Amino acid sequence: MKRPCCKGVLVVAELGRVGYADALAIQETMLAEVQEGGADDMLLLLEHPPVFTLGRNAAESNVLVSPAKAAELGIGIVRTNRGGDVTYHGPGQLVGYPILRLKERGLTVVGYVDALERMLMAALMDFGIATSSDSRRRGVWVGRDKIAAIGVRVSRGVSMHGFALNV
């Protein structure tokens, strides 16, 4: 049975610490349910054990440790189907995976990424942290340091992946 999507409906699920492969499987399941109209738009909030994720076009040379050293440190390396480059995920980092029908929310892909940046910047400003963004270097920045990474994938008009906020 199809469920209606409205601009104001967003189910938030706080998942705790979840391995990257498990979180990806959850996203893919929820993506399919949202695409088919069987679930409301949602936001998955979680943290990952240490892992480097590489976006579709990321060069492995952008991971600044060797695979052997990463393994020695207990850090996984996973290529994924999102946009963006290399992102480190680890304990204490807030990861958000919005699974949203973009068209129903009046968003293009670029508009969605812009909205994610604005949302993160507004949240950080609530804590007195001044930030900036740059359309040539996606993410949210404090000076020259990245405080939040953004990498998304859109399939059949529905988003997955999202943001990682260093808290």
Explained architecture:
- The strands form two sheets. Strands 1-2-6-10-9-8-7 form a seven-stranded mixed sheet, sandwiched between helices. It has a three-stranded mixed sheet with strand order 4-3-5.
- It has one domain: BirA Bifunctional Protein, domain 2.
- The chain has 167 residues and is an alpha+beta fold.
- The longest helix has 18 residues.
- It is globular and about 45 Å long.
Comma- or semicolon-separated keywords:
167 residues; alpha+beta; BirA Bifunctional Protein, domain 2; three-stranded mixed β-sheet; 10 strands; globular
Count every helix, treating DSSP H or I runs of 4 or more residues as helices. Answer: 3
Q: What is the third-level CATH name, the topology? A: BirA Bifunctional Protein, domain 2
The major beta sheet can be summarized as: 7 strands, mixed
CATH homologous superfamily annotation: Bira Bifunctional Protein, Domain 2
Mean pLDDT: 94
**Tally of DSSP β-strands:** 10
Choose one word for the global shape: globular
Spans of 5+ residues with little confidence (pLDDT < 50)?
Answer: none
Computed over alpha carbons, the radius of gyration is 16 Å
CATH architecture: 2-Layer Sandwich
The share of residues in helices is 10-25%
Instruction: Look at the structure and give the CATH class.
Output: Alpha Beta
Quaternary structure of the protein: single chain
